[in-house]
């Protein structure tokens, strides 16, 4: 497996559309059964919010498109953030703080990004608008932003810095909730982190779960690493589940203590903080130890992955027809699966078509 000098941007999954139907953007009110102690604040947000929204970062045209979270078929976005004032350039993972401000991992492009930054947009931002804050500059240490997530409890911003092909290796950075401009990170890991395109928090909000892809210079296979938020031992992984030869990308955790990992062999559903390893070649699939709880084998191109933060714990997956290193999907789309889907599962709904303005979808987030 070779290193990736070109953009690695989207979950691309080669599967039939099965006739996606259109539906209204109307969102029913209600709150999922939330038992995790770290979900209480978020549950209060959801209860008071009039809608939940689906945010998609489009690397093909440098935009963020916003939909009702149950949007389906060929439906236009409710809002679009795009234009030169936004400074959006190859957007990656998206996240939100408790006020609904949108965070964008910006500039994951090529060997060294031309515009590495964390962009923050006000809740409800629309059109050609400037970010309300930007974290960028030499003191930040950002050189190729791969993954990003905001801690809903502290407001701290965690960023995975990708290797840049010019000597800078992968690092995990933490910025304070009010960081802006050329601000130094408040915490920095050792230079031992494999490249990753998505990170998430576990159900207790104590650990970061990082999905990483194969990277030969550091001898890393694809899989999941778990790191305590305080980076003990300089960020050396606490737990590790490797899927070995399968290229892997996005990761997300849900409130039922399950972790989902998207790869070119399907979407894996694992018990949280699973420690184990997969086969060394395609003929040894049965050697997974421990075996995944389920695998959606109808999604087989790999890519980004996001889990709904609201009414249902569905799995949202981006499909890209342009920006991916492995088999290209027939069209730009967002597929949505039931959280416990298995095997040749059909999606619950598909968002796709010219009216959606999806263009190389990469980052994805469900929030307020």
Describe the model.
The protein is mainly β. The protein has a single domain, classed as Methylamine Dehydrogenase, Chain H, CATH 2.130.10.10. It is built from one helix and 25 strands. The strands form six sheets. A five-stranded mixed sheet has the order 12-13-14-15-19, with no helix packed on it. It has a four-stranded antiparallel sheet with strand order 3-2-1-25, with no helix packed on it. A hairpin with a 6-residue loop joins strand 8 and strand 9. It is globular, with a radius of gyration of 18 Å.
Tell me the CATH topology: Methylamine Dehydrogenase, Chain H
- Proportion of β residues? 25-35%
Count of domain modules? 1
The value of Rg in angstroms is 18 Å
List the helices and strands and how they pair.
Blueprint: H1 40-48, E1 53-58, E2 63-68, E3 79-82, E4 94-96, E5 102-106, E6 117-121, E7 133-135, E8 145-150, E9 157-161, E10 171-175, E11 187-188, E12 196-201, E13 207-212, E14 222-228, E15 239-244, E16 248-253, E17 258-263, E18 266-271, E19 276-277, E20 294-296, E21 306-307, E22 315-319, E23 333-337, E24 349-352, E25 361-367
Parallel strand pairs: 15-19
Antiparallel strand pairs: 1-2, 1-25, 2-3, 4-5, 5-6, 6-7, 8-9, 9-10, 10-11, 12-13, 13-14, 14-15, 16-17, 17-18, 18-20, 21-22, 22-23, 23-24
């Amino acid at each position: 497996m070779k290193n990736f000098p070109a953009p690695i941007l989207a979950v691309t999954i080669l599967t039939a559309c099965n006739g996606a139907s259109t539906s209204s953007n109307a969102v029913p009110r209600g709150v999922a059964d939330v038992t995790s102690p770290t979900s209480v604040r978020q549950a209060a947000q959801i209860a008071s919010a009039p809608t939940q929204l689906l945010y998609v970062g489009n690397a093909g045209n440098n935009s963020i498109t916003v939909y009702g979270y149950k949007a389906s078929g060929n439906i236009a976005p409710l809002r679009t953030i795009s234009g030169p004032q936004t400074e959006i350039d190859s957007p990656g993972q998206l996240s939100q703080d408790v006020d609904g401000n949108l965070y964008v991992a910006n500039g994951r492009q090529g060997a060294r990004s031309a515009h590495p930054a964390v962009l923050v947009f006000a809740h409800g931002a629309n059109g050609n608008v400037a970010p309300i804050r930007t974290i960028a500059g030499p003191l930040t240490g950002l050189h190729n932003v791969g993954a990003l997530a905001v801690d809903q409890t502290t407001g701290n911003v965690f960023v995975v810095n990708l290797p840049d092909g010019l000597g800078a290796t992968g690092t995990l950075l933490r910025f304070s909730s009010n960081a802006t401009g050329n601000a130094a990170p408040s915490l920095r890991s050792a230079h031992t982190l494999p490249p990753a395109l998505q990170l998430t928090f576990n159900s207790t909000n104590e650990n970061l779960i990082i999905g990483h892809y194969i990277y030969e210079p550091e001898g890393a296979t694809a899989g999941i690493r778990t790191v305590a938020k305080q980076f003990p031992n300089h960020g050396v992984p606490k737990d590790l589940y490797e899927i070995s030869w399968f290229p892997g990308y996005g990761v997300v955790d849900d409130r039922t203590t399950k972790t989902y990992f998207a790869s070119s062999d399907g979407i894996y559903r694992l018990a949280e903080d699973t420690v184990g390893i997969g086969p060394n070649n395609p003929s040894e699939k049965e050697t997974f130890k421990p075996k995944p709880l389920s695998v959606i084998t109808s999604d087989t191109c790999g890519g980004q992955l996001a889990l709904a933060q609201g009414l249902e714990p569905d799995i949202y997956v981006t499909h890209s027809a342009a920006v991916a290193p492995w088999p290209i999907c027939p069209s730009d789309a967002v597929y949505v699966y039931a959280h416990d889907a298995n095997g040749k599962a059909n999606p619950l709904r598909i968002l796709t078509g010219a009216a959606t303005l999806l263009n190389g979808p990469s980052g994805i987030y469900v929030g307020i």
